[in-house]
Structure formats: structure tokens, C-alpha cells
Here is the input.
Amino acid sequence: MATETHEFQVEARQLLQLMIHSVYSNKDVFLRELVSNASDALDKLRLEKLRDDSLDADVSDPHIEIGIDDDARTLTVRDNGIGMSYDEVVQLIGTIAHSGTAKFLRELRESKDEAGAEGLIGQFGVGFYSGFMVADEVSLVTRRAGESHGTRWSSRGEGTYTLETVDRAPQGTSVTLHLKPADPENQLHDYTAPWKIREIVKRYSDFITWPIRMLPEDSATADPSDGAPGPETLNSMKALWARPRDEVSDDEYHELYKHIGHDWRDPLETVRLQAEGTFEYQALLFLPAHAPYDLFTRDYQRGLQLYVRRVLIMDDCEALLPPYLRFVKGVVDAADLSLNVSREILQQDRHIEMMRRRLTKKVLSTLKDMKAKDQDRYATFWREFGTVLKEGLVTDSENRDAILAVASFTSTHHDTEPTTLQQYVERMKEGQDDIYYLTGESRQSIENSPHMEAFRDRGIEVLLLTDPVDEVWADAVGEYEGKKLWSVAKGRIDLDAEEEGTGTTEGEREQRAEEYAGLLGWMGEQLDEDIKEVRLSSRLTVSPACVVSDAQDLTPALENMYRAMGQEVPTAKRILELNPDHRLVKGLNQAYKERADHTELAETTELLHGLAVLAEGGRPKEPARFVRLMADRLERAL
Ligand code: ADP
Here is the structure.
């Protein structure tokens, strides 16, 4: 086949431009990226061969090879791993699959300064393309294991790349970088120097479990029989989790994290676990410092790498951690598992189940320690992953208390500092029996909700919950240390009973109830379609009315959530509460008693209901009609 010229996908082209004119100061990492890809390719080959023994592939000496040609100024990284088919090259190297990349590029254009660009590159990582930081041309020859033809890809990074099928190519992938001209001022960046390559590999890729060999410089011409030096293995290949703890530096752990997490940034926390006894295993887990953009999408690839005695048998073993810890990356190496297990079997395996329970507890106890010892780090963790962790309150009742111990929530107690339930309980007022919360879209909208009025007035703390999952867990958890979790938008709130000696007395309330009985009954009939009851409120101090849910009913937000999950739920009618101290409500009662014709009052009732719905962030049943009635009233008030 002849050489074809293809155009890069737009995003890929933009990213390449960025690499070529790179502002990223640590250019050495390009080698880490190429070695990381090569190592993955060797892992994949082994896994594929494990699953399908008939695969026609050479697995006799898996390794990575680095070759330097000083005269041609090229650097080649070769692996004899899985390789890529023609289509895979087009798909994997010519386009950028990550949907986050578009967002990345947009942010990049907006942040015109170089420091911003550098930060963004570090955030997203650019893998293979990072070669263009140091090379003005990159070519790649690859042959997929089991296929007969190879593919040659080449590009100068300027909008197009060429592709051709080649008859003969060794199995695996070889990437050749045509290095940019040497900078006599800056020897540090001379990637044709063997010491430089040694240093980079040692620093970033020592733990790679496959041998990384450097070929002697003149290996192309040397005669192997004349005693010329052979390839030199650059890495120790020792699995970090198998080395004594005090022999491994934080940097080494971080490099492993970057390799398996495909992240360019350091992790927030490294967790080591060594299980001895009848079922031995080692785990090395990482809590990332940043939530990936796709954490809440179906595409998110969760799972840990599962090894059996240093042999990788699964790249993304989901069964090792519950879904609410899906952000955790890492490695588990077990001594006694079958090498040949399928995903389905793993899901039910007793040992896997044992490991999952232990790892879950370990992660949660690590978070507890972090919270106790390092508030800043914990705050970062919670900001990035709190929403995910809260899912566990619903799905993992066994660890509920441990999750609650590290969960924190915004609250009316403080503008910026979140609180734990423990701290809330310690601050509870004399006579307060329940933990109050309110859910909504934002802190501001919750704080301004009419439901909050009486609480604000009396200085009673309310948790302000803004994640969709909050309603669900609050409902599922129900209580904490014997205190009920109570939504301030649900049921009857009787703060006077809690706080004796203030507000209205029993006698006064009865008298009021009598005064309003007629109006409430009549309004109830008017709103019968949407409202189950109209009653007087003890929640309100400023607003005339609000709608609340009955204690045992689902709130509208929960109803919507269940519907979004495909469950059928009936719409629960709500309750309209009136503020008997409000002039509008007082006037309404008077008018109801004095007038014989209630036509206009029926409209007022409808408007009052609409306003209450609006105030909690909902929408009136018939917005157009609501607006017309309202405009009419405003006009008459002129
Ligand atoms: P990432 O490694 O983060 O996925 P890259 O841009 O580095 O992103 O690589 C894109 C894809 O190209 C890889 O996911 C892999 O499927 C493929 N690839 C890259 N290098 C190799 C290689 N040496 N052997 C086989 N496939 C490779």
C-alpha cells in the first residue's frame, strides 16, 4: 500500500501545537510516557495470551529497549508487546478519545499565560504526544501480535500524519524521536547522552516490572562476537509493594501512581497494606489529589490492578473496592489466586470479597487519620471526592459509621468551614432532639428558603446539603447517635415545644387555630388538586407561606431522582403552610370572613400557593397563568 496522508482531528492538532511550542518545563517526562505505554503494551500482551493461548505471539522475552543514534540524533523506544493494528493506530494515535480534552483545550485558550498552560498539561497529561516536546519528527512502526502486516506512522506534528502498511515489522511498537537540534547552552536536555537516559529511567520508571534495556551506541554496526558490550538493564524491576517500606521513597511511590493512574500529578495519599496469614496479599493504594472529569460518567474506568505473585492478571479489577471508592487507584498482589480467573468468577470469589472488606476499611481508616492529622489535605480530599464517598452511606451499611466519621457538611454554623455530624451534635441546643438539614441547589438558595426562617430566628443550626445524593443518604441513614435527621422542609416543625418559654403558648395556638379554621378549610378545597392540607405554620417568620412535604412522603427532589433512575413513583401531594403573623395572611382571613363573594380570594389563594412553590426553587403549576394573575394584581396596586 502506498503512503497515505491523514489529517489530525482538530483537538489532536491543537494539542500537538501545544507540545511543539511546549512551555512544560520538565521535558524529561516524555520518556516516562513512552516507557509507560510500552510497559502497558507488554502487560496487555501477557493478559491476552493468558486468555487465549492460541494467540500467535512471541512472549519469550518481553522487554523494552532504548536505542540512541548520536549521528542521526534519534532516540528509539521499542517494545515487543501487543502492538497496534492499522485501525488502532488511526484511532489511538490520530485522535484524542478523551472527552475531557476538548474542555482542556478550551481552558487552555482561556488561560493565555504560560504558567496556566503548564498547569493544564500537568493536569491532563498527553502521553504519546509529549514526544513532540523534544522531537521535531516522530515515527512509529508497530505490528499487532497475531497479525502479519505492520503499520508505519509518521508526523512532524503539523496538522498531518502519514500512514503506510509495511510488510515486515517486528511484533510490538517502536517509537523513534528525531530530536530537535542540540542546544549548546543546555547540555541538560541532550537526550542522546546515555547518562541522561539512565538517570531519567531510574528516576521515573525504576519500578516497571519489565526490563528496560539500553543498547550500546554502536550496536547497529558492532559484531556481537568481538566482545562488544551487550545491552544494559536500566531498571531494578522490583515491585514497589514487595520492597521493605522504609526502602521506598515517596517519589518512587508517586511515579508508580502516575503510571497506573495515567495522571501527571502526585497522589494525595499512599496507602500500604500487608496481609499475612492463610491468605497473603499486599496492596498499594493511592488517593488521587484531583477528581477525574469522568468520575460520574458511565465511561469511568474503575478498578485496581490485580497481580498474582508479581504477575498482572487483571488491569481493572472492580471487585476489589466498592463503587463509592472508585477513585482509588492501585495494585493488589495476592499469593494464592488462580492465574486464570474470569471477571464473573472474581465477583463471587471468597478471597476477593475478603480483600474488598479489608481494603475498604483500610481506606476509610486512612481518611480518618488524615482528618485528624492534616486538615488541609483532608479538606482537599473531601472537596474532590466527598460526593462520591457519600454514596457509601446509602450502599454500605456495614461501614456507615466509618463514612459518617469522615464526612463533613456545610452548615449554617459557619460560612466556609464544614462540620461533621459529631460536631453538630456537640453544638445542639438544650432541648433540641433532632439534627436538621435542608437540601437544595446551592447554599444561597437553601439559606434563602422560607423553610429556614424560624431556624435562623432561633439560631438553630441547619445542615445545608447541595449534592443530589444528600437527600438519599439522609433518608437512608435516618439517625445519628439517636438523633433523627430531619429535613426542615418536611412534616411539622414545632420549635416552640423544643424551646420552652418562648413564642406562643398552647392557649394562644388553640385560639388561633379556631380563628383560621374556616379559611384553612376553604383554601384546602380550592387547592385540592395539588395540596393535601392547608395549615398554620410555626416555621415562618418573614414569608407568608411555604410548601412542605408530609413526614412520610418523598420530597419532590427524591421523586425526580427515582424517576430519573427509571422507577415509577406517584407524585405526593404536599402541604401548604401559612404564616399567621404575616399581614397578607391576616388580611386574607379577615376578607374571607367579611366577604360573601370569594372569587377574588380564590385567585389570591392560587397566587399564594405559586409564591410558596417559587420560594423553594420550584415552579408554579401553570407559569403563564401565574404570571397573568400576578401582573393583573400589580397593575391594580399602582
Ligand atoms: P494514554 O497512554 O494515556 O492512553 P497515549 O496518547 O500515550 O495515551 O496513548 C494512546 C493509546 O495508544 C494508548 O492508550 C494505547 O492504546 C496506544 N499505544 C500507545 N503506545 C503504545 C505502544 N507502545 N504499544 C501499544 N499501544 C500503544
